[in-house]
Design brief:
Blueprint lengths: L1 E5 L9 H11 L3 E4 L18 H9 L5 E4 L6 H6 L4 E2 L2 E3 L7 E4 L17 E3 L6 E6 L2 E6 L12 E6 L2 E6 L4 E6 L1
Parallel strand pairs: 1-2, 2-3, 3-4, 6-7, 7-9
Antiparallel strand pairs: 1-10, 5-6, 8-9, 10-11, 11-12
């Protein structure tokens, strides 16, 4: 299985052509978007490349191979106008024999995971900072943000292939990786 993860687009198209090229040549099984699709949010400054229609078209073009989580900036209207399912909350998507959960990260994350099984993998965005961390038998993965990175990171994304999670920045540098 080969998966491409992005998060926190916030309606900004800047790096989506890069993701489109990666998608086209990568032979991915799914694109997983971990929320905050269209709205830039009240804490972020408006960006020149803010283009909800472009983002919506990009996501709609992947709808047959798209798993999308609802973020804290995604509204009911966003869900209604999208041609694909946007999963609310947290969802279990087991693969390669692992108990894997996808969510946005505003409710379930490294510091709020008590309700999750002891031995699981939680993949989420929300923080705009890429990392892979462990706590007990749990693994926490955050691909960062493709549009609005924080903590001096470049925009980032994550690929899962051959039991390996790898977070890259858009310049191809490996930010973090972990074999499971």
């Amino acid at each position: 299985m080969k998966l491409l993860f992005i998060s926190d687009i916030h309606g900004i198209k800047t790096n989506l052509p890069f993701i489109e090229q990666l998608w086209a040549k990568g032979n991915f099984d799914y694109l997983i978007v971990l929320g905050d699709l269209y709205y830039i949010g009240p804490r972020n400054q408006m960006k020149e490349d803010y283009d909800i229609s472009y983002v919506q078209s990009f996501l709609n073009s992947k709808k047959e191979k798209l798993i999308c989580m609802r973020g804290n900036c995604d509204s009911n209207v966003d869900v209604e106008v999208s041609d694909f399912l946007i999963h609310p909350g947290i969802e279990r998507f087991p693969f390669d024999g692992k108990d894997v959960y996808f969510t946005h990260g505003d409710l379930y994350h490294f510091n709020a995971c008590d309700k999750l099984p002891d031995s699981c993998i939680l993949i989420y965005g929300h923080e705009h900072v890429p990392y892979i961390k462990e706590k007990g038998n749990r693994l926490f993965l955050n691909p960062g943000s493709i549009s609005l990175p924080r903590s001096n990171f470049f925009p980032t994304y994550m690929i899962y292939e051959n039991h390996m999670f790898t977070i890259y920045d858009i310049h191809g540098k490996i930010v973090d990786q972990r074999k499971i």
